[in-house]
Design a protein that fits this description.
CATH class of the largest domain in chain A: Alpha Beta
Order of helices and strands of chain B: HEHEEHEHEHEH
Shape of chain B: globular
Distance between the termini of chain B: 33 Å
Shape of chain A: globular
Structural class of chain B: alpha/beta
InterPro entries (chain B): P-loop_NTPase (IPR027417), Small_GTP-bd (IPR005225), Small_GTPase (IPR001806)
CATH class of chain B: Alpha Beta
Largest sheet of chain B: 6 strands, mixed
Number of domains of chain A: 3
Number of strands of chain A: 15
CATH superfamily of chain B: P-loop containing nucleotide triphosphate hydrolases
Helix content of chain B: 25-40%
CATH topology of chain B: Rossmann fold
Radius of gyration of chain B: 16 Å
Radius of gyration of chain A: 24 Å
Structural class of chain A: alpha+beta
Largest sheet of chain A: 5 strands, antiparallel
Keywords (chain B): Nucleotide-binding
Number of helices of chain A: 17
Protein name (chain B): Ras-related protein RABF1
Pfam families (chain B): Ras (PF00071)
Strand order of the largest sheet of chain B: 2-3-1-4-5-6
Oligomer: heterodimer
Protein name (chain A): Vacuolar fusion protein MON1 homolog
Largest interface: A-B, 29 and 27 residues
Chain lengths: 459, 200
């Protein structure tokens, strides 16, 4: 082993080609969550850890397992081996496998594999399947050259972005009139022949307009924004790139004009015509001047600084406030004034509007202030989501769950879903009361936190 | 690569290209030129453009997706200005089939390779052939050996590249986006070789 090999064995964060480890190395085996994509002939296409070409033996084994079950006229979905779960997803000639010891539900992991496949389609379209029809041993890796950051960023988002399991998008909070001003100019350019116009701030929507009858699926928005945010070259200059939205049309490329207006704010204009660049560029110039003149970009910056909803701001009357348990009993009023979290020990919530395909979540704050705790909370929500939407015994309406880390409460109605996390010592009746307050609060603020009208989802 | 078959003649090519605006404005003193950069991934196309347009060099590699669009104007000694509208294309294999989208109607093609990589030199020859077949007939082509600062690791000799360029009838230069060596010379030399549009 050369010194280079040894040094590459060290865990490292997204610098250059991951490493040259293979399945025999200890560090590779210690990873908690592996993702693999392979072809139906067993050729490696993508691996989260390790160099693909060194994992050919391993992916051949995975392929053998899948085809053994397929030959028996069945499909393999899930295997448990000690602490590890192995989840399989077959998408035509492309096989996706997740091996994990994170105790996430297998349905949640399968959803993540679906998104991983979707991300591949964003880059290549589903017409890639034809290459495998022509040549069973087709090697797909060269076609994915330079896209590692896109996949690692998507996999990372499985542990911080609720959109990955809620299948909904979220908006940057803005005054109704500000969002309307942005929507109006986007509507103008869509009327001039643009298919979709999106103004985004990181992964949050500022405004979004689609052509008549064209609707944008929240999963496509997630995959598109992940693709743009994880590709550094978009920040350098205006770009024009073929892109596929798998839920819109998995077989065809659209043409995306991407331009950053501010540090984190970017405009995406999608067209079906490959020769639309100059038109889209003109549209951008028009949009940018309107956004600057009406100070929309200034408002966007302000909203980013102010942050979103804070649990501390949930409005409650005095009777609830005095009842709320102090996290440090005996410290009296002083402790109450500087107490951690919101009323009744509310730590965090996510509200998903079913009709709008949008969600809003409170800012993560103390005591959930490490990324490890945040990841754990999202995994707990994800588990809750899966158990509430269980196809065999669900769907359920409410769930109250208490363990050593939190009280989790979920409430699903035909209009919305609410996920809330409380202090593990929170009182049940009080927690339910607070959930009602949160829902009322969100409805009071809906004009600022959700996108209405002009959106493809409003009929 | 299937795209090529759908380009029957020059007029149709211009109509269906990223070139809905005229190649060069009528004003003979202010020339506008569409320029496309082609070449293998990692040879430094974006670095050449960013050095030329912004005078910057960023050693961290940023993979280009699709194509980036940048403009830069230079003034020539005879008081004409040339505005380059530059298409910096992605070098990845998956974009090869889409390249005609960017090079159709281009007045200038800059084909870049890395002097430390013979593979990238072969790829450059592929692009030259592609342009001869499907590019504009009067396209000005430049062959650029980039990363000239890494001469210790050189694996493509300047002589070999020079001979190849001469055979094709294209302009050849070695550059370093890192040290800025020959970057401006490249674009100035291109300007001199542009067909005199005012006479046509």
């Amino acid at each position: 082993m050369t010194s280079r090999d040894r040094c590459d064995d060290e865990p490292e964060k997204g610098k250059g080609k991951k490493n040259v480890t293979d399945d025999a190395s200890v560090s590779w085996r210690k990873r908690k969550k592996h993702f693999f994509v392979l072809s139906h002939s067993g050729k490696p296409i993508y691996s989260r850890y390790g160099a693909e070409h060194k994992l050919a033996g391993f992916t051949a084994t995975l392929q053998a397992i899948i085809s053994y079950v397929e030959n028996g006229g069945d499909n393999i979905r899930f295997v448990r081996a000690g602490k590890h779960q192995v989840v399989f997803l077959v998408k035509g000639p492309i096989y996706l496998v997740c091996i994990s010891c994170t105790e996430e539900p297998d349905d949640a992991l399968r959803g993540q594999l679906e998104l991983l496949h979707g991300q591949m389609l964003v880059i290549l379209t589903k017409s890639i399947d034809r290459c495998f029809e022509k040549n069973k041993k087709f090697d797909m890796t060269p076609l994915l050259g330079g896209t590692e950051a896109v996949f690692s960023s998507l996999i990372h988002s499985f542990s911080w972005n609720p959109a990955t399991f809620l299948h909904a998008y979220t908006c940057l909070p803005l005054a109704f009139s500000t969002r309307q001003a942005a929507g109006a100019i986007l509507q103008d350019v869509v009327d001039s022949g643009v298919l979709f116009a999106m103004l985004m701030c990181k992964h949050k929507v500022v405004s979004l307009v689609g052509a008549q009858k064209a609707s944008l699926h929240p999963d496509d928005m997630l995959l598109l924004s992940n693709f743009i945010l994880s590709t550094k070259s978009f920040r350098t200059s205006e770009s024009f790139s073929p892109i596929c939205l798998p839920r819109y049309n998995p077989m065809a490329f659209l043409h995306a004009y991407v331009h950053y207006l501010e540090v984190d704010s970017y405009l995406v204009l999608l067209s079906i015509n490959s020769d639309d660049f100059y038109h889209l560029k003109d549209c951008r110039i028009q949009i940018e001047s309107v956004l600057v003149n009406s100070n929309v970009l200034g408002e966007v910056q302000k909203s980013v600084q102010d942050g979103g909803l804070h649990v501390e701001d949930v409005p409650v009357d005095s009777s609830l406030r005095s009842d709320s348990p102090s996290p440090h009993p005996g410290q009296g009023r002083a402790a109450l004034a500087s107490r951690i979290g919101g009323p009744a020990g509310l730590w965090h919530f996510i509200y998903r509007s079913i009709n709008l395909d949008q969600y809003v979540s409170s800012e993560l704050s103390s005591p959930l202030n490490s990324s490890r705790l945040q990841k754990e909370l999202y995994r707990a929500y994800q588990k809750l989501y899966v158990s509430m939407h269980d196809r065999q015994i669900g769907p359920h309406k409410t769930q109250f769950r208490r363990d050593e880390s939190y009280v989790l409460l979920c409430w699903i109605t035909p209009d919305f879903e609410l996920y809330a996390a409380f202090d593990p010592l929170a009182d049940k009746a009080l927690a339910i009361k607070i959930c009602n307050r949160v829902c009322q609060w969100v409805r009071d603020l809906e004009n600022e936190i959700f996108l209405f009208g002009g959106s493809p989802f409003s009929w | 690569m299937g795209c090529a078959a759908s380009v029957p003649d020059k007029s149709a090519r211009q109509a269906s290209s990223l070139n809905s605006e005229p190649l060069a404005a009528n004003d003979p003193k202010h020339i506008r030129v569409k320029l496309v950069l082609l070449g293998d991934s990692g040879v430094g196309k974006s670095c050449i453009v960013l050095r030329f347009v912004r005078g910057q060099f960023d050693p961290t590699s940023k993979v280009t997706v699709g194509a980036s669009f940048l403009c830069q104007t230079i003034a020539l000694q005879n008081s004409t200005t040339v505005k380059f509208e530059i298409w910096d294309t992605a070098g990845q294999e998956r974009y090869a089939a889409l390249a005609p989208l960017y090079y159709r109607g281009a007045a200038v093609a800059v084909v870049v390779y890395d002097i430390t990589s013979p593979d990238s030199f072969h790829k450059a020859q592929y692009w030259v052939k592609e342009l001869q077949k499907h590019g504009s007939p009067d396209i000005v082509m430049a062959l650029v050996g980039n990363k000239a600062d890494l001469h210790e690791n050189r694996r493509v000799s300047a002589q070999e590249a020079e001979e190849y360029a001469e055979k094709i009838g294209m302009f050849f230069i070695e550059t370093s986006a890192k040290t800025a060596d020959n970057i401006n010379q490249l674009f100035e030399e291109i300007s001199k070789r542009l067909p005199q549009r005012q006479s046509s």
